Amino acid sequence: MSPEATDWELGALSFEALLEKLESLVGQLSSGEVGIEDAADLYEQAGRVYAEAKSRLDAVQARIDALRIEPGT
Fold it and tell me: Domain limits of the chain?
């Protein structure tokens, strides 16, 4: 994946790959070895990866909620 992944590229990744990407980005940011401009780019990309992962989790939660059978029905 390119350093600045597009939404389409993020959508093609598995949830697990998104988590790995997010961990990598956070590691780069926390290393303190990137300049301010690169840090801003990494932060922005991490936000996009996080949003995609959260969207997937929300969708799975909605599916689980829909499958729950309420007591007494």
Answer: 7-67
